[in-house]
Amino acid sequence: MPTAHPLLPLPTAAQRRWLDHELGAIIHFDMQVYDPTYNYGDAGRTLRRPPDVKLFNPRQLDTDQWLEAAVFFPRYEEYWSILKASGKDVIFMVDGCIDAFVDDVMACGACGIISEPFTDFRRIARGYQDAFIAGEGDCRVLMRQDKKEIRAMVERMVETSRMSGGYMMCVGNHIPFNVPPAAVKYYFDVSAEIGFR
Predict the structure, then answer these.
(1) Whole-prediction pTM value?
(2) Are residues 117 and 159 in the same domain?
(3) Is there a contact between 33 and 39 (Cβ–Cβ < 8 Å)?
(4) Which residues have a Cβ under 8 Å from the Cβ of 85 and sit 6 or more positions away?
(5) End residue of a domain, out of 42, 60, 78
(6) What is the pLDDT of residues 4-38, one digit of tens each?
(7) Rounded to an integer, what is the distance from CA 63 to the centroid of its chain?
(8) Which has the least CB within 10 A, 53, 68, 109, 115?
(9) Structural domain for 177, as ranges
(10) CA 120/CA 126 separation, integer angstroms
(11) Considering its fold, how many domains does the chain have in total?
């Protein structure tokens, strides 16, 4: 007897196209650019000294000018053109909130965004149909272990997924080791129950 829904969420055609992509490159920009002796430790298990803030401590920082003209956007277009010329798509991953410059990143040639729940994912979904979008889930919700809140988060994620064919269910601020397993399991269970189109 056929079921009303598949047993597991099935990817959309747009999601399947993203799943067929091969990884081309990961470009990571952080304090190691300024201090190559700084490292994150052994997979995060060992704390190392933090970078010296004097290496990057501007007194008059115009972030708009810095992003647009001096550092990022011109370089992104240049670097990403190399990847795109070889047939690779670019998915931009950023910590925090990308709202202020998502349009600039997409204009440079990114085909998708992975960010954290501080980002307005619905705005991205409305503006960039079928772009790869991931990271709307929030581990802080999982930490609170409130089933109603977890379900509401997944329901919001599913609503956003209906706006863009490239949406992927994802906890953007990651699921660290200290998130209670029961909360993670409930998130997965609710995602499996309603996380399909």
Answers:
(1) 0.68
(2) yes
(3) no
(4) none
(5) 60
(6) 555 556 677 777 776 676 655 555 555 555 555 55
(7) 21
(8) 53
(9) 89-194
(10) 10
(11) 2
Tokens in use for 192? 């499996």
- Confirm if 105 and 98 have CB atoms less than 8 A apart: yes
Write down the residue that tokens 């810095």 correspond to. 66
**H helical segments located in the chain:** 13-19, 63-65, 72-85, 102-107, 121-127, 139-144, 147-161, 181-194
- Within 10 Å of residue 77's Cβ, how many Cβ atoms? 13
**Contact in structure between 111 and 89 (CB atoms under 8 Å):** yes
- Give residue for tokens 């909360």: 183
pLDDT per residue over 119-156, tens digit each? 999 999 999 988 999 999 999 999 999 999 999 999 99
Measured CA distances, 148 to 102, 137, 152, 188 (Å): 31, 14, 6, 14
Contacts of 56 (CB under 8 A, 6+ apart): 31, 34
Asked if the structure places residue 96 within a domain, the reply is yes
d(CA 112, CA 93) in angstroms, rounded, equals 9
Instruction: Say whether both 173 and 128 belong to one domain.
Output: yes
Using alpha carbons, select from 135, 24, 130 the residue that is nearest to residue 81. 24
